[in-house]
Specification:
heterodimer, A: alpha/beta, D-Maltodextrin-Binding Protein, domain 2, two-stranded antiparallel sheet, B: alpha+beta, Heat Shock Protein 90, five-stranded mixed sheet, 8% strand, SBP (chain A)
Chain lengths: 448, 448
Amino acid sequence: MKKEGKIGRKPFAARLVLGAAVSVLLLLGVAINCRTKQAGEDQVLRFGMFAGSYWDVPNGNCYQIIDDAIMRFEAAHPGVKVEYVSGILKEDYSEWLSEQVLLGKEPDVFMIPAGELDMLASSRIIKNLNSLIERDKNFSKESYYQAAYHYGNIKQKQFALPYESVTTLMFVNKTLLQKEGIAMPGSGWNWDDFLSICRQVTKDIDHNGITDQFGYYGYSWQDAAYSNGLSLFSEDGTTSFFGDERMEAALKYVKELEEINQGYTVTSKDFDKGKVAFRPLAFSEYRTYKPYPWRIKKYSDFEWDCVKMPSGPAGGSRTELNTLLMGISSRTGQGDLAWEFMKTLCYEEDTQRELLEQSQGMPVIRKVTESPQLQALLNNDTPGRSGTVDMNIIGQVMDEAVETPNFRLYPAAMVMADGEISRILKGEASMDSGLLKLQREINGLLKQ
Amino acid sequence: MAGSDNKNGGVYLLSRENVITKLQIGIYLLNFVAVCLVAGIMTYSLREIVEVMDARNFLKAVQVRPWRPGTILFTSVTCYLMLMVLSGISQLWEGRGKWVRSMIMVGEIGFCIGTTFALNMNYDGLVLLVVADMIRGQKGGKQKLILLLAVTGLYTITDYNLLGRYFGMVPWDSFISYFSVSTQALLRGTRSIFVSMNLVLFILYMVLLIQGEHREKERIRFLNAQLESANLKLKAYAAEAEKNAETRERNRLAREIHDTLGHVLTGIIAGIDACITLIDISPEETRKRLVKIGDVTRQGITDVRRSVSKLRPDVLEKMELEKALTQMLDDLSHNAKAEIGFDNQVHPLKFHEDEEDVVYRVIQEATTNSIRHGHAEKIHISIHKKDQWLTITVKDYGKGCEIIEKGFGLRHMEERLKILGGSLEYEGHDGFLITAKIPIRWGEEYDS
């Protein structure tokens, strides 16, 4: 009796097994068929980049360095082809990359959009490079400027390699200083020198009762804090140091500087017109506007040059280092090849040297930056003019630079700090208690 | 009556099996549609997000990298089909060994987790499918605990709220947030309907399955009760039959005594009375009479002996005691499948008839008790003598008996032994041990 009852179930089960198994085999067959069609062709490595300069300065031929690097890489790795999509603007790049990730077609190696390292790393979109670095005997992180290299590091995990960096330098209006009979500041200059020169040059030239020559433009409290040897956040981004006395000294100094201008707000136009002696500017700006043809486009009315930032009483002339990073997709099928290609871009001296010629950033490899070639190159940029930047200074600045924090809440914390500090500078809040309160609030934010 | 009952049960079974099969088809189909639907919507919305160029915000919001759209579809459908294959096999192989079934179960759990992961934990209905298979396969006892652990574990792993973020899963709401509000509501509703339908079908399926099991148990219990009552009746019959036999035996004995002894004694009394009267008149006549009385008495003894012979066990009539015992024990061990050891230290085993009877009866009764009440599978019997005492021990390794209720058998043995001046001891702590002692009239002449 029971057997009769089971007749209903067993054939059903048998049919189920058969039907489902056939479907699975069909699906697998289709999948394998799709895969094997790709085999036999060249191995393709995909690279993601944006057009133009990372530093928001004009760049004539952004693909030259990459194309040359690809050529060298393909020659060294026969059977491998590197492809990239050209023409993606920097402002569209982040969206483009995200779309590729969603479609599962992100490149094997790609440039990391500014400020998105933390998101890409925590979403596990980019690969943790620690094991690749450990395995690679030919790779030494000591070759890099520490700040540049460390920018790609989150919680002891190296997620990206630096490609090029830009540091902040102090632009000096040489014409103005000459007119005032003031010597170019040397590399050892400090806050007091900066302050006294500013006081000296700030005056009413045409005697119409309005001050029309100024000491500085755009020197921010961050510049003062860094040059006073202070890091604003701990490395892991869990605490801030706004309550530090070096911070207080920096703010006092900025306030003193501001007082020289007697309430007049200096604009970049004033600097462009040659009416301002100093302006902190990115190295990329220097590289762009120093040589022909861009030289005549901007800052053409006066002679100018760069020096290190003036150093504060508590520390050297440290500046913030801005770095373009590259990472490897965590689901790339050819991790080792991707690593080799990334090394071609970020580690090979040939590529890094070419950066000097073609790009506006600084090579991140110490050996390349400090080579005599660079000095010669910079001299070539400004034929007939004297007093170019001493590359040893650039090397020094790079060495001493601190990396921009890359943790997730950094932008939010900086917005908060900027608002509160401008209140303090305006005298709306007291300096010591205000800073301690700010530190407490930001630490609270970082705990989120 | 029983036949028609069976037939009804069979029809019932058939229809229930039918419903269960249909329910199963329903569950498989429903889940298949649900898996396809969820995977389809996920794939579609990923493409939609790219279409509306919101990929960057999506990635920022979910903070994980979703699977490739194709991978989601392929993995979820393949894993689900494999789950169906295994589920079918587990029904076909219901009778296979424990290990095979466990392996199938582990496989099912694996594919269930695979599908659920591919669907980013946005549909957990498959757990019920696996649970249904597990419950059908389990045989109670320790397996129940394993089942409980497995189900809890499975639910923990596949619950988005608990571990979803950790495994890098994207929540359902993020996927559908790119549809219009009304579509979102529709999609949310559709998914809930699938989840609830699945739950309803599962509960129905379980109810039918458990009901079937319950009915089966009921039937077994009913049959058991019937068997029990039949057994009781049989016991009552046996007791009555024994009693009848005893009464019959008593009557026969009474008759026998009356017929033989009564007749002879009456004759003797009459003869002796006549002798008393005659002794003075004619001693000669008296002697004649006495000789006659002697004859009658002798005749009486022969008669008594004949009667007693009739009461003797047949075997003892025909053969020696030892042989009879061996045969009886052989028969018993053969019939009851018990191992019976017989250790006789007395050679030759030959006594007076009444003693032989008692020895035979005691051993017979004791072994019968051991098998009937103690369910012994091993019995040891020994006979040895010391001085005039013959000791018989019967030891069994059966159930034993803490509180001994003297039954017909024991009482009978005791009575028989008492007649010969012997004794009986017994104890039932570890198996049952009977010790019988008989004073043997060694060498005493007995008229034969």
